[in-house]
Amino acid sequence: MASGLRVSNLSLKYGGVSALCGLSMDLAPGEVIGLIGPNGSGKTSFLNLVTGFEFPTEGAIFFEGQELTGKSAQSIARKGIARTFQNLQVFSRLSVYENMRAGCHRCSKPSSSFWQFKAARNAEKERILSLLDCFSLADMALDTPEALTLVQLRQLDLARALASEPKLILLDEPAAGMTPYETDQLAKTLQDHVLNGRSAIIIEHKIDFIAALAKRTFVLSAGRAIADGPTDEVLCDKDVRRIYLGECG
Ligand SMILES: Nc1ncnc2c1ncn2[C@@H]1O[C@H](COP(=O)(O)OP(=O)(O)O)[C@@H](O)[C@H]1O
Ligand SMILES: [Mg+2]
After folding, report:
1. Whose CA is nearest to atom 3 of ligand 1?
2. Ligand 1: does its nearest atom lie under 6 Å from the Cβ of 30?
3. Whose CA is nearest to atom 11 of ligand 1?
4. DSSP code string of 112-165
5. DSSP of 164-201, one letter per residue?
6. CATH numbers and ranges of domains, the chain
7. 55 to each of 1, 182, 203, how far by Cα in Å?
8. Residue 7: DSSP 8-state
């Protein structure tokens, strides 16, 4: 049976800085995990390793039974893993629509005939228009990203990640900079259109957002796992509250 994501004993060092230390995690197909921890605890580094943007100093990464360790970001995207970025990365000279096409290209496979190419192109167009519609960006398809608000840029980043129809999506602080209302709206969109049956790891400092979306939460502190379990139990854990939420006693 196809398994989900399995990371084993993962470590990452930047020179003398240990960003991650001996991290292991299993994610079942369709499971949604919240990933929390103080700034600098290694959350983004973990996403960088799983998506091939960095390579581990030690440890191994498997997805659906295949080893991903050392593979390029593009080949990992082709296996069905997509991500968003904490520091938004959009192509500023391309239109919203073209940015979406770039998301499709990350995982597109070569066509063996003109008709196959044409069918794939049509399917891509439909998929992009439907995603832009879902994220209320359809009217801005021909604009460049500079015309978008921060919320719309975050939505574009998310829609672009979804354009490749990933089996696993990794979200790095998707609600950063959003008001409570915008954060609630994003949680609803994720619930209704993104997470239905798809595996996800969601990094976010807004605890209510994590609690609304993830049944399981994983906590990092200084590159090490300090808790992993049902979200409600983890958020009540004494050490988690002391280290992450800054509570005394
Ligand atoms: N490119 C880099 N070069 C050197 N150190 C880095 C780099 N990226 C992250 N770090 C360090 O690795 C640690 C983990 O960072 P990061 O994964 O960004 O944490 P988080 O996402 O939890 O805030 C921090 O100490 C950070 O300063
Ligand atoms: Mg980060």
Report:
1. 14
2. no
3. 19
4. SSHHHHHHHHHHHHHHHHHHHHHTT-GGGTTS-GGGS-HHHHHHHHHHHHHTT-
5. T--SEEEEESTTTT--HHHHHHHHHHIIIII-SS-EEE
6. 1-80+166-249 (3.40.50.300), 95-164 (no CATH)
7. 27, 35, 20
8. E
Sign for the CA dihedral angle at 73, 169, 56, 19 comes to positive
Say if CB 163 and CB 144 are below 8 A apart: no
Retrieve residue 83's tokens: 């991500």
Tens of pLDDT, residues 91-104: 999 999 999 998 88
- Give 222 Cα–ligand 1 centroid separation in angstroms: 10
Q: Which residues contact 225 (CB under 8 A, 6 or more apart)?
A: 23, 24, 25, 218, 219
Atom of ligand 1 nearest to the CA of 203: 21
64-73 pLDDT, tens digit per residue, is: 999 999 999 9
CA distance 151 to 154: 5
Which amino acid type is present at position 19? A
Helix or strand or coil: residue 237? coil
**Residue percentage of the chain with pLDDT more than 70:** 95
| Single-letter amino acid, residue 176 | A
Instruction: Give the ligand 1 atom nearest the CA of 48.
Output: 17
